Amino acid sequence: MTSSLTTAPARPQSLRQTLRDFGRPPRIVGLDIARGIAVIGMIAAHTLETSAMFVWSDPETWTALANGRPSILFALLAGISIALMTGRTQVPERSQLGSIRLRLVARGVMIFAIGLVLELLGTNIAIILTFYGIVYVVAMLFVGLRVRTLVIWAAALAVAGPALQAGLVSVSPFGFGEGTTLMLHGTYSIFVWTSLMLAGLALGRLELTRAKVAAGALAIGVAMSSIGYSVGVLWGPGEEAGWSSSVSSASSSASSSAYAAPVTPGDEVDLSGLFCEDYGDGFVSCYPPEFFDEMPEDEPIESQQRLGGSWDDYIDMVQANAPLDMMSDALLASSPHSGGTMELFGSGGLALALVGLLLLVGRGLRHALLPIAAVGSMPLTAYTTHVVVIWIVGGPGGWIDDPAFFWWLTGAVLVGCTAWALLVGRGPLERLTAYVSRRVG
Question: Would you say the pTM of this structure is higher than 0.85?
């Protein structure tokens, strides 16, 4: 005997119910809040003049927190997100790794493609998404590892990676190309990001809803940050080792080595005895007299550039780069975007402490901080939106440095993401990347 049961269609959830349920498990609202803070930090970095030095007692210097640190937080959160989408606390079985890796590559390619589109807009922003996509692809090599192994890899890359990168740069004075620019000379360092991603992946394999795990992340983060910034201030190469995240890779490529010479105001430079050429476009080149003694007198300076090099030139340039000094600076540098080990400890520890704190208090603050959590529930959409708005308002190649615009744009992103999260749910670009990932895997 059989019977037929008619099931009534599920009633759409009311706005009040959606609001009440927002941020409840299986979502971890503390992570959404952290992602939202990272996005807002990016907006600040791209629309405000950030201070060079952070001083607790001086609110005018608090904008320094937006210089470099949001991208560090993004990298750590990337690893946590990868852990959550690949089994959470369960390390994938060998039989599952193939499909998981395909999905990670697909998601990484989609994020990379969105980043390329944003780069084509021609803003002065160092677009984070292309590198973010690469991190997803790199992650496929590590998703099958256990927590202890991930921590070892993260620590090894954090300590040795920056020095190795500096060494490669110092012994490759002619080594400029698209690949080396992306991986070695760009605003974002593959060693820094991989280390942070692995740290996040290890953290994400733990039970993040347990207070003990969150408190441990907070304590370890505070200790790491204290060590990193203290060592960087006492023995590091100084603030000149980094650059602003508002500047694109193309704009900073000429000085993209994390350990380049410091920038000095023109009125503090002594040009006595030098011969200078004024190109009329704001650039001036100056040369010592002996430079001209080595050139034919009947040829202009720009025609004297040698078309080829020699081993003698190479050795001279490597010696001038002082590889050991560069590697030492890489180990001790803590300034934003320096890519140094102490930046990893300082800013990375700060990011870890923030995540730990928000894991502890996030659930209790999920309604008070709902707009920030809504932004964090769709970080790819929110980040892309803010870049497009800056492009529309500032124009291609434009630059916006306006506190009023920062507050306007931040408010618009908060309101827009909150409305979308409550009325629609998942962000549009998050839906797109998830769809492609599912189709591939």
Answer: no
